[in-house]
């Protein structure tokens, strides 16, 4: 157990006096359970007490001191359901070890936050909002300059992927990381991220590390997907006890402690506890961490440019953002001033943002057509030295938590269903500014098509959102937004919209996939693709650094796959006009057949097939090769008469 048992119980007693009374939202005092008045012996009969080992006995004493006697009371006598009793106690020991400060700290925080919730306390009371310092990047304007700075610093990058959730909201039973990003290649989300880190590592000349935060729900499957890669470390978060009422009593079902996810804010405490952050700082030459989540494939377009802004601006924390319209249901980044010089730059959730901005004239669009308070995409770049200093401080990386109970009574003492404490990784500035007051916190805003298209909503929700003219946020929209982003990079124009699986307003232009091996930054595409013309139903997939497209036309439904992953070979496409009736096809699945479809099709509402007419070109030998007008791969002496692309 943590620390000396006697000292721990003294702390519990001190906490008990502080928690005896809390003001109720109704204005009167509400008595909380009196702590420390019972003993384990008075709650449990001797035979059951004898079942407990030292760890379990210590946790039982903590429970009684915290007023959680109901967890232990009413047990049948020794010899009856003993395995269930041990299972419950093992769950409690696990929960005690998992939470920084143990169960007593969890209950202390829970009672404080629940009391504030019942009173209706406003966390932003007395704070004045203003627009924080940041950079707004446009792909065809200043993004390239930011990428130039970022690429020079990229050898100091470490990646942190937050992947603790299942795909239930998507209508998928497995883990989201195993889902295909798009049907043109079938690459999974995790493989796309690994391919990007591998390609960038190759470009900067050193192996860049990746840490993945999993949960009980995703850990085993994620480990199988990630394999035994030496640059990948996996850290697992635990759940926290569910609470049944305003006194923070634990929920128990049978012989199981009911637990709930604590939130992705756990990643900071886990990077401290695992030692990863300190090891990467001291031994891996990492200078910045890039935090991202599991199913937003466009996030990879922001890595280098946001790092460049962090370096040039000296940001200790940089939030990646997208434009948001005034009143949009999206959190925004704001500077909050208390008047004493202790400013805080942080995400404010949308339900709190509009009331907060009323004091500053309201949430209004400026001349750009968007609010000056950018929308939070929940992607972070953090400078590692300040990060380590912060998580190794007294808070141990535990970000400030919140509670969101659904009350069942007017006195706000009972809940409709159990709640829990939650935390979000984007609330890190609260810790950072306490430990590093001089730290600069800012944002980098990207165009939405560049940076943000998460797959999170199920098919029915996606259909509904699209009908309203809002982003569908589904597997289908994420797939077609990948095609759109890569097509725009390759200077192909949008061709209206299409409807698939009942989801309206999907991108209607040509399908383009430029793999990380081909392009990391904007300049890669500009230097490797000179003339490309594509009809709206054609498809192009490019995999490999040493591929150059001088002159290529894809007509009708033509699909061309180019692969050259060799360092000792080049491939030039020059003069090919490919006109095919068969290519990459998307076929609606009737609603009655959707339940029978394979899982990745079920969440999209359509199936993807690649015609045998697709032309696949694969370079599998050293040398220089050209793909010309006849569609045949031939050796050549170089790029051609005009080597400069």
Automatic annotation (TrEMBL):
A Pfam family annotated for this UniProt entry: UDPGP
Keywords, comma-separated and alphabetical: Nucleotidyltransferase, Signal, Transferase
Cofactor(s) this protein requires: Mn(2+); Mg(2+)
GO biological process: UDP-N-acetylglucosamine biosynthetic process
Listed EC numbers: 2.7.7.64
InterPro entries assigned to the protein according to its UniProt record, in alphabetical order: Nucleotide-diphossugar_trans, UDP-sugar_pyrophosphorylase, UDPGP_fam
EC category: transferase
Catalytic reactions on record: a monosaccharide 1-phosphate + UTP + H(+) = a UDP-monosaccharide + diphosphate
GO molecular function, one term: UTP-monosaccharide-1-phosphate uridylyltransferase activity
Record bears the keyword Transferase: yes
Secretion signal span: 1-25
PANTHER family (UniProt xref): UDP- GLUCOSE PYROPHOSPHORYLASE, UDP-SUGAR PYROPHOSPHORYLASE
Family of this protein: Belongs to the USP family.
Entry protein name: UTP-monosaccharide-1-phosphate uridylyltransferase
